[in-house]
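Posting this for the archive.
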Amino acid sequence: MEFTHWKRRLQDHFERMGFTLRIERLAMQDIIKLEATHGAFLFFPVTINLYERMGWKMIAIESHHPEAVEDAFAEAQIQSLFQLTMVTFEEEEREFLLGFYSNTGRYLTDRDSPTGQLLAAIEQEWYDGATVRIETFEEFPGLFVAPPFAHQSYAFAAAEGNWHLFVGRTGRPANDYRFDGEVLMPHRIADNELFTMTPLAVAIDDATALRDELRQERYEIKQFHAQVMQTIRQYDPSFGFAWRGTVTFFHGVPVNPFAQRLWLEDGHKRFRVMQQASQRILALGETCKEAIDALDTAVSSGEPDGIPVSAVGQLILGIWQQFESDENTYLTEVVCTGISRTQAENRIRHGLARQETILWIERSQNGNDRFQFAGLSITLPHRPPGIIEIRRKDEQH
């Protein structure tokens, strides 16, 4: 029987193994859904979805194990179940078979097959050896990965003897390429609209070239990110330093930027730096150098409103998470005891540059907060506006 009937072959295989199946055909999505139970082999029911996605023959398995069954044991059972499905196909047919364990987002493969070697290369070169577990609201994924170094999603597919690399068409952050307004939801977009093919293609049997290509992709993106951070820190050393869960800030204005190296449909690249909250583009270029030069021009143009924000303002506005750059609206007065304002400014500026840690002494929802930073003891209202009191750390209040 030809491989095109692989869903039927698997269905028959499960029945021969003694599984009790309840079969549902989702014709609109070309999916066969199997509700499977087996008293001897599995100690819990599973749902198996058989479908095709970007050339992959996908076997997505979801377990419904009770709390008494440990997750690790359930995952081992699912891995065994997937391995038993492998005996249904010839060796060359396994190249494009891919399993997916919905409970943990982990892919299931035959590690000796080309697919298993592809997944191993992705884990080694992009995830530093960690297991790929995708975080996705997509119920029926293909081989989609969101590496931590890139603000973009990737997909892999095979065609004409090569592994082809696809990237998310929208250029959205890697972990929400299905973002719709403010609601995360499973997308129902055709793959050719969701992903676009890059010029990167490697022979399926050339494991060395595959690893080199993945390594180069990561290196280029990380180099761009490093140059972006280095450029901005020339003008604001505190940039990129988050205060215990707050967003980063620039000139006293909190920002949440990300740098993207994107692929365009014609195979060209685009480098850009964006403000994630407002989708405002800070710099754009067709090459890394062009984007960095544009960013340097943008951040060296002066303060947003022409009024410099003091080091004290950067520190306090960052803690309060205020987006306005007018520090006088929030810092009604700065009182320095036992130290001049200039000395306090210099200490805080150097502390920001060194990315020192804030040591909280006291936090009060309805009163004043007190913390130590850069050799100073600083008291401030829990919420703005208010008076900021600064004294040397070794002096008592």
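Confidence is low (pLDDT under 50) at residues 173-188, 242-247. The first helix runs from residue 6 to 16.
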